[in-house]
Amino acid sequence: MFLAYWIHNLSPFVVQFTDTIGIRYYGLAYLLGFVGGGLMLHAYARAGRSRLPSALVPDFIIALVIGVMVGGRLGSFILYEGWRALGTDPLALFKIWQGGMASHGGFIGVAVAIAWFAHRQRIRFFYLADLIASVTGLGLLLGRIANFINGELWGKTTDVPWAVIFPDSDTSGLPLALIPPRHPSQLYEAALEGALLLALMQWRFWRTDVATRHPGRMAGEFLVVYAGVRMIGEMFREPDAGISPILGLSRGSFYSIFLIGSGVLMIWLSMRKPAAAAPSA
């Protein structure tokens, strides 16, 4: 009765070598996100709008890659109870090719990476945080699209015309014709967390002097807006199976409350600091 809707049948592989080995869209999304972010940071330096020299961009990106991968993976295991799998698969933590990354954990990993790099290169933490806030939307956009291609993190059941039937969403053995369609919430999140935030932060960076006059404010704005649109996306997203809510909120919404608090604190601190001089070209 639901076959009028599009049935998700996309392969998670760009190129597949065996049943489990190949080049996956999920991994490609991470690669393109970091490469694209690095190119934007180079563009900032060439335009004379960044205190981060082009020569340091590769080292900064490497630090961020480590922060995202370690933070995102640990976040998935700690914040979303992925540790339960360790009892049956002690190496599950290291199987990053199977997915299982938490954006909130990734944010923590990125903050640690920025703090380390800021200390090492003697560049203000808040300033580097603003630079990262201006490019992060690209990685979020590509990551959510990869989630859709993988057919994971699907939305709640619905009858909207653009709903999608995700065959893997049924675990009871229903015939395909009886599997209910769902919101393609991954694409909603790609538009809100990715495209919208990327456009907003790029506008703030290029069209205003907020990054140089009030370091930290743009990163704070990013955290507040991200948390808000993440909560909107969670309204359409099916709760993760076996993951209990906290205070009636999904894990994504609950953890986003802390992002709002962190963002507001960063904005407040940035406004208390004296205006910084503009970078030299």
In short:
This protein is mainly alpha-helical. Helix content is 56%, strand content 4%.
Major beta sheet, strand line-up? 1-4
Distance between the termini: 63 Å
Overall number of strands: 4
**For the report, how would you describe the main beta sheet?**
2 strands, parallel
Number of alpha- plus pi-helical segments: 8
Q: What would the keywords be for this entry?
A:
8 helices, about 5% strand, mainly alpha, about 280 residues, 4 strands, two-stranded parallel sheet
What features would you describe in this structure?
This protein has 8 helices and 4 strands. By secondary structure, it is mostly helical. The chain has one domain. The strands form 2 sheets. The chain has a two-stranded parallel ribbon. It has a two-stranded antiparallel sheet with strand order 2-3. The protein is globular and about 60 Å long.
Strand and helix map with partners:
Layout (H helix, E strand, L loop, with lengths): L5 E2 L5 E4 L5 E3 H22 L10 H23 L23 H19 L3 H26 L13 E2 L19 H23 L2 H4 L3 H18 L16 H22 L9
Parallel strand pairs: 1-4
Antiparallel strand pairs: 2-3
Helix pairs in contact: 1-2, 1-4, 2-3, 4-5, 4-7, 5-7, 7-8
